[in-house]
Amino acid sequence: MDLAIPDMALVVLIGASGSGKSTFARKHFAPTQVLSSDFFRGLVADDENDQTASADAFDALHYVAGKRLRAGRVTVVDATNVQREVRAQLVKLAREHHVLPVAIVLDLPESVCVERNAARPDRDFGAHVVRRHRTLLRKSLSGLAREGFRRLHVLRGQSEVDEARIVIEPLRTDLRGETGPFDVIGDVHGCRDGRKVTVAHGLGESLAQLEAETPEFRAAVRDFCDGLLAHYVLDGGRLVVAHAGLPERYHGRASGAVRSFALYGDTTGETDEYGLPVRYPWATEYRGAAMVLYGHTPTPEAEWVNNTMCLDTGVVFGGKLTALRYPERAVVSVPARKVWYEPARPLGAFTREPDSLELTDVLGRRVVETGYGEVSVRAEQAAAALEVMSRYAVDPRSLWYLPPTMTPPPTHRDGDLLEHPAEAFADYLDQGVREVLCEEKHMGSRAVVLARRDGTGVVHTRTGRAFFPSDDLLPRIADAVTAAGLWSELDTDWLLLDTEIMPWNVKAAELIKDQYAAVGAAAGSVLPAAVSALSAASARGVDVSDLLERTRGRADNAVAFRAAYRGYCGGPVRIAPFQVLASAAATYHTTPHLWHLSVADRLVEADPDLFAPTRRLAVDTADADSVAAGVAWWTELTSAGGEGMVVKPAANLLMRGKRPVQPGIKVRGPEYLRIIYGPDYRDEANLARLRERQLGHKRSLAQREYVLGLAGLDRLVRGEPLWRVHECVFAVLALESDPVDPRL
Length: 744
Description:
20% strand, 24 helices, 6 domains, 744 residues, six-stranded mixed sheet, alpha/beta, 30 strands, globular, Rossmann fold, Metallo-depent_PP-like, P-loop_NTPase, Purple Acid Phosphatase, chain A, domain 2
């Protein structure tokens, strides 16, 4: 005899003492699945037969059962469970965790139960106890289904107990083995089992059409509708489809609450000006890993909200019929031929103001779908970003992009260099990228420039703060764009540029003064005096040769340290643009970097006093001579006092599978790294320690911030509302709060 049990269930064994419940549980279930009342009495009272401990024992049993049910695990309660009030607590527990309660009744003769108890030395109660259990059981049998048990198995006699076989079955909603691809289509409109259904909204016409069909066809339609489920869990749990949406705690569960939410959603208890219930915004709180696709509440556009999407775009009300292709995440819409039914609430009544920003857009844990992969933002990261954004950032209406961090190459292991171009070239070759472009790395501060044709705009740092105290440079930037002929050529009234602004001290004056200059001044005052004192001691015959040599080396390093940071300070303000991020007409992710630099060259030509050129060299990573030329070029740059270079895929955005390759690898020169790691970093012992630096997190961070930036620009140029753009901008700033070694 097969006993079917859902793979997410609370199994309640019911039977008189001595009916064999514990033996049955041991035979058919794993020890970890069975919660025995006797065992819990032993836990709380050191005596499994101490009936005075039953209240505490069941309290502990229910607690553990709740934890297991929350995790979605089959849980078996091994107790007599012949009292209705005891079973009611277990049914309530199952409902609280949205799993199905299942009853397995062992209905054995009273004589068998009495005989078994008599053979157990630890059971000294009389036959009257078994008789009372049997009486309660007989009174309960006919009403177990009404008590809420969704499946009921009654085993009458020992032979049925012996023949029983437990069969674990997935719930009907569990279609995790179906991996797709799927086309998920939005509401057409209607739902399987509505509340207070009236013959309206076109239902009358449908019924009339069905009336003309054969009884067999109508029966097939009825069976089809009856077979529909409140929600589906697909593709290994990665996709959930429900009519009105579903929070994560309900995924794959079964209860009246789950079904109600899946079919009708939830409301705030309020009504709007049209007299309709205000829907509870469950999607803004959703943080689950599964994609949830739903409908029920018409919306003008299908938009991603925390890995959920409402596909009901109101086709019946004259909107669109929308579908999502899974796993591609491609959204396809076709307009309605006409307004089939006038809605009580206008379709666009709750269209959000495009420039409005709300805390709920960015706070809490979020999963941002970029089109280049998902990026997760933790709640604590979002909180840190909110502090910076709300206190220091420029007007959010002009804050469209934050540049990503950049990773250094794998550590160089030879000689006294920590970073070397050979590792960057090899890294890209390993990623399948042959053509790279080496760009001079300017020693300044990263800045994003939003230039408008009318001379307005903004210049901000990579954390969104205003770069300059005034906007005096913006008209001059606009004039240069005009002189270069870019407004008309790119068909735009604004340009977003990624740049470096020199000199370094324009933005980093306080850092230089408080950190680098302080170290340089201290070393300059202490080390020469130490060398002088040690030299005098050596002249008197004191053996301090090793210490004197080390101190002289440190003094020389201190001189080199001061020369390194001073070389990047002073001079007029210059802007070195190296990438056109976007215009009103397009983004330029896939436009080769040489085009971007050619645009920069035209700006330099238009105003050479304001704009600085960026030197560049193309390298074939699979050609030894080309790689050697790239190394020589870097050596020449850094020997002349340059910071280093950035190696980028020449084609710009390149995908490797579902993720882009690294957008750039910075290779810094040895003297610049002296500023970063300290005057003595090239000493053998220090280099050995620094070569153990971990780059994995930095590389991951650079890639995640890069795709967020791309997504924000894509949304901007597509004309999506500001809050959608800011979701990406905010996420970049949130990721920057991660504790990563700032020297990398």
